[in-house]
């Protein structure tokens, strides 16, 4: 961005917005932060400490339109009035990810996809840390990328990146880009067109060069379809559960282990900490991203066998009178819930519902018919869930709070069953976010 001081507005004062503002001030720019809603006290304290001007519960349009650059938080849709006004003025709009990228020379490993991106990014970070690398983890998970660049610079960043963050990336080009899979998600933000969402995901490789790497799933139909119509400059490496791969990774069905073939010297990994087909995919991608940075095989093996499961992702909570409670609050789309149901061995009482992002529940019907004995619908509008599963599951009941949902599920379960919170929906109707939903679930289970 050069040394010239710019007049910058940051829209949205959450984790990413505050991080971007802190980096911008450190670089000597004039910064104003504007949030259409209230700003959390913890974020206000950070802005005050950095001497950054901000406003909340509305936008000073005249002031914002004088900006040279706008850094937009991923949650703000294009149809927002303030964005339309900024676009009309032809002011450059970028994401916090793009802004941080322009101001660091670190090696970037970026993970996107509809499902598995948090687990994959966390696995890679775990391996890199174990290998003694100077690495940070951030993006859509935990820390703001920009704030790390400003306050705690690393040689390598592992970033989980959502499609919304990619939408406002221009020059962003990770050394290693990973696309876990593409299933219909957030279609409400993409004019209900899957192709628009796919294009958004593929922005992760749009500026990659011949020396960069792209890791993708060879079993994912949407990825393959897009692959055929995209020009890909970087070195592409596939991973597959269904067939052998020469330059990538695959699941060896006979031996029940994964094999990495991404370099001359293939390696097998027998002992995976995370079970289930979806986790085999995540482990393959993480193993490949580690071999590309020449991390020792022993370190990769060890890391993939001693990794702890993530909070809110098929997280065992506790067992009460022989009923197991599992928190999968992070399953905010249908495909994520499909994986959760697929990996369950017990009869299930399933807690589902929330803000529907254009969900198609049809693909879940066979799995639900096989594994689910009762459904508890949690959310303000659950009519679609009733319509979809009424002929499939005998008992469907509604709950309007987490306490109600957990109590109802516990009553419906018998010894040897599991109660699974896997909502397949966003959380914003009753909760702050999926973490809040997961924590409330755990609290109510402990209160039983």
Automatic annotation (TrEMBL):
GO process terms (BP): cell division; cell wall organization; peptidoglycan biosynthetic process; regulation of cell shape
Cellular compartment(s)? Cytoplasm
Q: Name one Pfam family in it.
A: Mur_ligase_C
What is the superkingdom listed in this entry's lineage?
Bacteria
* EC numbers, comma separated: 6.3.2.9
Please tell me which top-level EC class this enzyme sits in: ligase
Predominant cellular place of this UniProt entry's protein: cytoplasm
Q: Which reaction does it catalyse?
A: UDP-N-acetyl-alpha-D-muramoyl-L-alanine + D-glutamate + ATP = UDP-N-acetyl-alpha-D-muramoyl-L-alanyl-D-glutamate + ADP + phosphate + H(+)
Name the pathway.
Cell wall biogenesis; peptidoglycan biosynthesis
Supply the InterPro entries for this chain.
Mur-like_cat_sf, Mur_ligase_C, Mur_ligase_C_dom_sf, Mur_ligase_cen, MurD
Q: Where does ATP bind?
A: 113-119
UniProt lists the family membership as follows: Belongs to the MurCDEF family.
What function does this protein fulfil?
Cell wall formation. Catalyzes the addition of glutamate to the nucleotide precursor UDP-N-acetylmuramoyl-L-alanine (UMA).
Please give the name of this protein. Answer: UDP-N-acetylmuramoylalanine--D-glutamate ligase
Species, as recorded: Phaeocystidibacter marisrubri
Gene that produces this protein = murD
């Amino acid at each position: 961005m050069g040394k010239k001081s710019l007049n910058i507005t940051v829209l949205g004062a959450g984790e990413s917005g505050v991080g971007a503002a802190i980096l911008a001030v450190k670089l000597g720019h004039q910064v104003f932060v504007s949030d259409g809603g209230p700003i959390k006290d913890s974020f206000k304290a950070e802005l005050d400490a950095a001497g950054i001007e901000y406003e909340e519960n509305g936008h000073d349009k005249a002031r914002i339109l004088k900006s040279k650059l706008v850094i937009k938080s991923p949650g703000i849709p294009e149809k927002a009035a303030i964005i339309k006004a900024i676009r009309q003025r032809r002011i450059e709009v970028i994401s916090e990810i793009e802004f941080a990228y322009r101001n660091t020379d670190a090696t970037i490993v970026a993970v996107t996809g509809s499902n598995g991106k948090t687990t994959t990014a966390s696995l890679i970070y775990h391996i890199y840390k174990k290998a003694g690398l100077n690495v940070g983890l951030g993006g859509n998970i935990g820390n703001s990328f920009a704030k790390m660049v400003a306050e705690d610079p690393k040689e390598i960043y592992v970033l989980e990146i959502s499609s919304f963050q990619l939408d406002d990336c221009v020059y962003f080009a990770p050394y290693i880009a990973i696309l876990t899979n593409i299933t219909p998600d957030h279609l409400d933000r993409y004019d209900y067109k899957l192709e628009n969402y796919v294009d958004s995901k593929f922005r992760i490789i749009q500026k990659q060069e011949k020396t960069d790497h792209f890791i993708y799933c060879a079993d994912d139909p949407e990825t393959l379809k897009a692959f055929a119509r995209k020009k890909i400059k970087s070195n592409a490496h596939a991973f597959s559960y269904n067939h052998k791969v020469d330059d990538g990774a695959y699941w060896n069905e006979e031996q029940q282990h994964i094999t990495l073939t991404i370099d001359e010297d293939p390696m097998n990994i027998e002992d995976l900490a995370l079970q289930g087909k979806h986790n085999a995919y995540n482990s393959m991608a993480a193993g490949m991203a580690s071999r590309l940075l020449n991390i020792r095989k022993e370190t990769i093996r060890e890391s993939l066998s001693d990794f702890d499961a993530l909070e809110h992702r098929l997280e065992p909570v506790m067992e009460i009178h022989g009923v197991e409670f599992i928190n999968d609050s992070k399953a905010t789309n249908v495909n994520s819930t499909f994986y959760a149901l697929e990996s369950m061995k017990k009869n299930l009482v399933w807690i589902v519902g929330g803000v529907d992002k254009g969900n198609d529940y049809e693909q879940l019907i066979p799995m639900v018919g096989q594994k689910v004995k009762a459904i508890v619908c949690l959310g303000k509008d659950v009519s679609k869930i009733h319509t979809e599963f009424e002929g499939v599951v005998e008992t469907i009941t509604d709950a309007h709070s987490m306490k109600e949902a957990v109590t109802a599920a516990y009553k419906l379960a018998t010894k040897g069953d599991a109660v699974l919170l896997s909502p397949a929906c966003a959380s914003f109707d009753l909760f702050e976010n999926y973490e809040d939903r997961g924590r409330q679930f755990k609290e109510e289970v402990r209160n039983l």
